[in-house]
């Protein structure tokens, strides 16, 4: 499953970059995120609880940041195991483009699922993934704008 998109954020690129690397801010924005913490300078541990169609599962896994070009871009590699529900793994290339007082966040992501999740079908998985991404970016945009307003 592939997803491509962009989000315009009314904040300077440096502030958006800092927010993308702030586990507390991300925890608030990632749907179902129960924990997110740094375990090394480029790795995070995460626990999420999600419902996709009829399947509800808790996922534990890791996130690794590679190809870091601060404050412009990086690649996020992630994988999580949800026990009987299956697994999810994927990556996203995130690029921040400075456009005056705003930042254009572009992303290209690819994900794979296995186990019970894969049995749900690609249409349901794709639709659910798009809804989760839309919710994340709306919440992230609001959180960054709130932080920019407070600064």
Description:
The chain has 151 residues and is an alpha+beta fold. It has one domain (2-150): START domain (Alpha-D-Glucose-1,6-Bisphosphate, Chain A, domain 4, 2-Layer Sandwich). The protein is 32% helix and 50% strand. It starts with a strand and ends with a helix.
Topology:
Blueprint: E1 2-9, H1 13-20, H2 23-29, E2 33-40, E3 43-52, E4 55-69, E5 73-81, E6 87-99, E7 102-114, H3 116-119, H4 122-150
Antiparallel strand pairs: 1-7, 2-3, 3-4, 4-5, 5-6, 6-7
What distance lies between the first and last C-alpha atoms, to the nearest angstrom? 38 Å
Overall geometry comes to globular
Strand order of the largest sheet: 1-7-6-5-4-3-2
What's the name of the CATH homologous superfamily?
START domain
Q: Main beta sheet: strand number and arrangement?
A: 7 strands, antiparallel
């Amino acid at each position: 499953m592939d997803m491509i998109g962009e989000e315009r954020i009314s904040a300077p690129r440096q502030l958006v970059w800092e927010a993308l690397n702030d586990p507390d801010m991300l925890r608030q924005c990632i749907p179902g995120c129960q924990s997110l913490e740094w375990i090394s300078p480029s790795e995070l541990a995460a626990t999420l609880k999600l419902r996709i169609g009829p399947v509800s599962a808790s996922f534990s896994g890791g996130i690794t940041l590679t190809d870091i070009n601060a404050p412009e871009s990086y690649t996020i590699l992630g994988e999580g195991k949800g026990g009987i529900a299956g697994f999810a793994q994927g990556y996203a290339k995130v690029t921040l483009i400075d456009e005056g007082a705003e930042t254009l966040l572009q992303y290209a992501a690819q994900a794979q699922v296995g186990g019970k999740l894969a049995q749900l079908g690609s249409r349901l998985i794709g639709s659910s993934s798009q809804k989760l991404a839309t919710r994340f970016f709306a919440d992230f945009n609001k959180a960054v704008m709130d932080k920019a307003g407070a600064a």
